[in-house]
Specification:
38% strand; 237 residues; 3 helices; 19% helix; globular; single chain; Lipocalin; two-stranded antiparallel ribbon
């Protein structure tokens, strides 16, 4: 009998690691970014993607990603992807200028043929309702830099919503600020503001119950990047 117990010991030891992994997986929940999520970039009168000195709001039409949520721990992880050719200029309401801005953005700033994606990632997150601070790994033009971000987080039974904004510098990613216009008189500012309103759900069935933000998918209504009508009225045409 004792010899039989000894023979079982190696088997039990071999089974222990998978059991521990199963327990770890049971303690985590995967949330998928909902299509209603919004990510926009706002420039000043000479910001990233700017043209002819105008201010612009630029929306990402496509955002995908996941949040691996570990309740009560600091090991939650976030991963987002944005196709660079999904960025859409929303302002000003001038079709000809929007075409110019979009062309400059894709060919002279982001080089979408070489760098088809922007990515945003963070780990060691203490994800809980309230304020959350993180070091976000932002990757553009093939370069990754850490950017400090503070987000407002609300955790429901089946959804997690996070909103906030952060500032990034083009030159930190090897992007040369754009200059153009007559005799190069239009200078592009180095700093731009990213604003986000992200919703993640536990499964596909829960997406039907996601509460859509005011203004729908319009990036001009994302807190932190709201397009001020008075400011828009002062823009040169």
């Amino acid at each position: 009998m004792f010899s039989q117990i000894l023979l079982l010991v190696p088997l039990l030891l071999a089974l222990a690691p998978p059991a521990l992994c199963a327990q770890a997986q049971a303690d985590s929940v995967v949330y998928h970014v909902d299509p209603s999520s919004r990510l926009v970039v706002k420039t000043g009168k000479a910001g990233l993607f700017g043209f002819a000195g105008h201010a612009h709001v630029i929306r990402a039409r496509s955002i995908t990603g996941t949040l691996m949520y570990h309740p009560g721990q600091t090991t939650s992880r976030l991963s987002l992807k944005v196709p660079t050719d999904s960025l859409e200029v929303l302002t000003p309401p001038d079709t000809a200028e929007i075409r110019k801005v979009t062309e400059a953005m894709r060919t002279e700033v982001l080089h979408v043929d070489k760098y088809p994606e922007m990515t945003f990632a963070a780990d060691s997150l203490d994800a809980k309702s309230g304020k959350m601070q993180m070091q976000l790994d932002v990757t553009m033009e093939g370069r990754t830099r850490k950017v400090p971000v503070t987000a407002d987080v609300r955790i429901g039974r089946d959804t997690i919503r996070a909103g906030g904004s952060f500032v990034a510098k083009q030159t930190d990613f090897g992007i040369k600020p754009f200059s153009g216009g007559p005799a190069g008189t239009v200078k592009v500012a180095d700093k731009v503001t990213f604003c986000f309103d992200l919703v993640a759900t536990r499964n596909q069935a829960n997406r039907a119950g996601v509460r859509r933000p005011p203004g729908g998918s319009d990036g001009r209504t994302v807190p932190g990047c709201v397009d001020n009508p008075e400011e828009a009225a002062r823009r040169p045409m």
